[in-house]
Amino acid sequence: MRDYVIMTDSCCDLTDQMARELELEVLPLTMHMDGQDYPNDLAGTAISNQEFYKRIRAGKLATTSAVNVGQFQDAMRRVLESGRDIVCVCFSSALSTTYQSAVIAAEDLRSEFPEAEIHVVDSLSASLGQGLLLYLAVEQKRKGLTAAELAKWVEDNRLTVCHWFTVDDLNFLKRGGRVSATTALLGTMLSIKPIMHTSDEGKLVPVSKARGRKAAIAALLDKIEALGIHPEKQTMFICHADCEEDAKAVAQTIQDRFGTPTVHINYIGPVIGSHTGPNTMGIFFVGTQR
């Protein structure tokens, strides 16, 4: 069996250290602000998470772009030239063209490397939901799954990774077309916080509403109780948009309430954060359904 690399993109929002420990090959999406491009590498080389949210809170606007075909071709070629195969797990195709770029790059390279296996999988996931799926995939790889077996495992298990989150400022969702201007205005006036998840199609979908942040976070925790499979045995993830103390408090509550042994916390990176705004928080776990 040939060795293989798990490739992904920076919308997995893992820490740089964890991505290295998991031996992932991570390609950056790009955030654009004030006429400058900031590759969203996990180490925050171009711009730190803290600096990004400082600017966003000050009113700066940001746009984003996907990993392009050329970036994938270059990264994939380096791996294939080393004699290894590839399983590429990408940010949801419903939210970015990154997956499509990987598919095109893989197709172009198959004729150049006919002996190689290149599997490209749509994670249908975002942020640390994608991160959790990769974390679990690496566990499977280390159990001895082949590249083809792992790609199938990801496809078969991606919809068990639950994504539940709430946003603090509806105006960011309004700009992205996720909520109407009227909904954003009324929600802001009444302190309405949407409870959202990532659907089976990989889309961000509003599910319910809560009055105030405390109630919204409580609603997220209730989803673990409703959907979680043996939460006392899981590793869970929490992402946050520059509200780390809140995230730590939620992690402690998860451990106290469900007996969950490990809860990893990290920032929502600049690419996803450009669309969700500061103080967004999400929890990710394995459940019976999304």
Automatic annotation (TrEMBL):
It comes from the Bacteria. Coiled coil: none annotated. Keywords: Lipid-binding, Plasmid. One of its GO terms (molecular function) is lipid binding. Gene3D superfamilies: 3.30.1180.10, degv family protein (2.20.28.50), Dihydroxyacetone kinase, domain 1 (3.40.50.10440). Pfam families: DegV. May bind long-chain fatty acids, such as palmitate, and may play a role in lipid transport or fatty acid metabolism. This is DegV family protein. It comes from Vescimonas fastidiosa. The lineage of its organism: Bacteria, Bacillati, Bacillota, Clostridia, Eubacteriales.
